[in-house]
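Page 37, top half.
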Amino acid sequence: MVHCGVTVMLVGTLGALLVGAFPRSTSKKSCSLSKYQFPVPSELKAVQRMKEQFEDIMLLTNRKCNTRLFHRKWKTAELTVPDRVTLVEAELDLAIAMLTNPTTQKLAEMCQQPLAFLTQVQEDLRVCLAVEAPSHQPSGKLRHWLQKLETAKKKETAGCLEASAILHIFQILNDLRCTAQREDCT
């Protein structure tokens, strides 16, 4: 009888160890964009300084751009939440690509903090897409804009794409705010 009690205790202990060694569920990442409804003021100030610095650089150059990439006939709030996430992720992809390889050294010095912030936002958006809408297909209006973006990336100069992304950075942040508000964005 004692032998049976030891066996039960041994099996119980081994069972507890095995359960602890192999968690029942893998830690699934969750989508939380609410912190982007009101980004940290220091991040916004860094983005503002970078934009102002870029505007000063633009005044000194003879850059002629006619990119109307961020001029859309629809509002971000008209899109579904997964479409908004896709939109902002694409906008950030362009902005991050341009800030990663800026056209001037002066801009390179100013864009480090905004670049880190925008990269974190992009990672959070990608998690949201993977968790909430892994097989999402963009709506017709968003698909049309994404095609326009891809065409611009092929046809526009790096300087014009940089100008478009940086001069519209607060539009991107407003699109992010709307995305973070989910269904409450109007």
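Page 37, bottom half:
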Amino acid sequence: MNSQCYTVAMDLGVCQLRNFSISFLSSVLGKESASVRVDNSSSGASVVAIDNKIEQAMDLVKSHLMYAVREEVEVLKEQIKELIERNTQLEQENNLLKNLASPEQMAQFQAQVQTGGSPTTTAQPPVPVPVPAGTTQVLPSTQSSGTSA
């Protein structure tokens, strides 16, 4: 994986963690705000209790996010593996097609690529596939037999 992409992903993850933590803690503290106001007139024990709740909430958020990040990393690793396999397969297919194509077909393809046209937009005859000697090749019929009305 590209280290620059990894750094960007980590920065995004940290940013999301901060935003999530802030919103989560705001909601937790919002529910506890009535008891916080009452306890402000008491001793410093309420401040310690609030600090403990905040620390517990942060630990909970951290553990949940670390678990989610690990799961996402595993999913992304699997997707990367599948994409590498697919890319290898397509490269092999591309090389095979290049080897089977005639020089005229390659020139026509290069011309289409240079003009910005898609090779699939023009009607082209099918590429002949070599058939080993002594075997017969059955092609599907594209013409209807009989008379038309």
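Margin note: The chain has three helices and no strands.
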